[in-house]
Amino acid sequence: MADFYKEDLSYIHDAGYSDYALNASTGILTTLSQNNIQNGLIVDLGCGSGISTLEFIKARYQVLGVDISEAMIASARIRVPSADFRVASLFQIEIPTCKVVTAIGECLNYLFDPDNNEQLLVQLFKRIYQALEPGGVFIFDIAEPGQIDKNDEQHFTEGNNWLVLVEKEENAEKSILTRRIITLRKVDEHYRRDDEVHRLQLYRSTDIAHKLRRIGFKVQTMRSYGRYQLPKAHAAFIAFKPSASD
Q: What mean pLDDT value characterizes the chain?
């Protein structure tokens, strides 16, 4: 577990890439309000450093945050001391009875689990369906094939006392995206370097929607969370578990 989103990358992700989680959670809260889900437990899978968790807590929901990164969870516990957090694989954790499950930021694509595959993803969908109360909702997003433009194979981002370089490669035949990430973070008087390699299994939104419907969900596919437009080749889903009156 410690090989992904270690201390420096977790810090940089929190400091420089928080807009996605913040904007997505705002859109999710609007969706919940529109569907009269005003309270209850949200299970925030892939919660990261707790940015989305904090927004849910501020809206008076209870939250269980789950992430595979110990460094991310350490930050989340500082940011949101009133929430419950666990370091675990989202494919292995037992999901309690809840009203809402979220998975923001393509976390279902990540091949952090050595045995992660489509079968395991479907099993997760089934466990979420069973855990949701009738009328509950599963809201998440995925990365699709077509992630890389010709001018987007390599880029760097610079912040206050840190820099991150990302090199991307997409295997079209296997629908796998590889990100090679180099971080430089100033610690005391020197810059510390770290390296991570992230692999993502890319899924087509039509295939994901089909799998959800076969389990019993009512599914809506989106290209935004409310007013927040998703990046290129990403899709979001609102998957409802029917209530007794449906």
A: 94
This prediction's pTM: 0.95
Summarised one tens digit per residue, pLDDT across range 67-80 is 999 999 999 999 99
**Are 49 and 14 spatial neighbours (Cβ–Cβ below 8 Å)?**
yes
Query: Domains in the chain, ordered, with CATH?
Result: 7-144+202-241 (3.40.50.150), 154-200 (2.20.25.110)
* Side chain identity, residue 143: A
Q: How far, in Å, CA of 204 to CA of 238, rounded?
A: 16
Q: Is 194 helix (H, G, I), strand (E, B) or coil?
A: strand
β 41-45/154-159 pair status: unpaired
Question: pLDDT at residue 163 above 60?
Answer: yes
C-beta of residue 143 within 8 angstroms of C-beta of residue 200 = yes
